[in-house]
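User: Can you recover a sequence for this backbone? Please restate the input before giving your answer.

Assistant: Of course. Working from this structure:
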């Protein structure tokens, strides 16, 4: 369901998949080959939300903004089921594990894995190429090249799967 808010309508690529019960509201931009899965809510009512090419936002995830904190999610990002992203910046090729929370003004570097159930507090900066876990999340170690490639594979697999849903 796409909802205009205060004169701002979602801008969704024709080859993106948005589940029929996903809510996309206001100044949201969904790029090519992105997918927004069942029950997700992307509420860009107070600021902008950008979702990059090949990124997947899985079931029941909530993405929201504040007046001074937009959301930018880069390319080939996998956001697992039931996550909350609020006013954060996530660079390219990141995997956000199921049930994670990423708060206002947090920044996540590229080629990073956020372990399931993690909390990235407001203003926290996560460097590129690491595994972070916990509440609050802490860097556990650097990722291997295989793990970095697996992040890309996850996004590519989700993009391919989403094409089965586009009629």
């Amino acid at each position: 369901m796409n909802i205009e808010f205060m004169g701002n309508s979602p801008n969704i690529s024709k080859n993106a998949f948005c589940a029929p019960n996903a809510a996309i509201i206001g100044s949201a931009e969904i790029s090519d080959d992105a997918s927004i899965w069942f029950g997700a809510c992307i509420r860009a009512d107070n600021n902008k939300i950008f979702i990059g090419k090949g990124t997947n936002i899985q079931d029941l995830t909530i993405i929201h903004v504040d007046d001074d904190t937009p959301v930018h999610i880069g390319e080939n990002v996998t956001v697992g089921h039931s996550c909350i992203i609020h006013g954060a910046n996530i660079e390219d090729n990141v995997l956000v594990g199921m049930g994670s929370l990423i708060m206002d003004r947090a920044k996540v570097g590229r080629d990073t894995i956020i372990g399931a159930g993690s909390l990235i507090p407001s203003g926290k900066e996560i460097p590129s190429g690491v595994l972070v876990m916990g509440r609050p999340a802490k860097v556990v170690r650097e990722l291997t090249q295989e793990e970095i490639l697996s992040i890309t594979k996850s996004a590519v697999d989700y993009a391919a799967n989403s094409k089965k849903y586009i009629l």
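That completes the design. The chain is about 10% helix and 40% strand.
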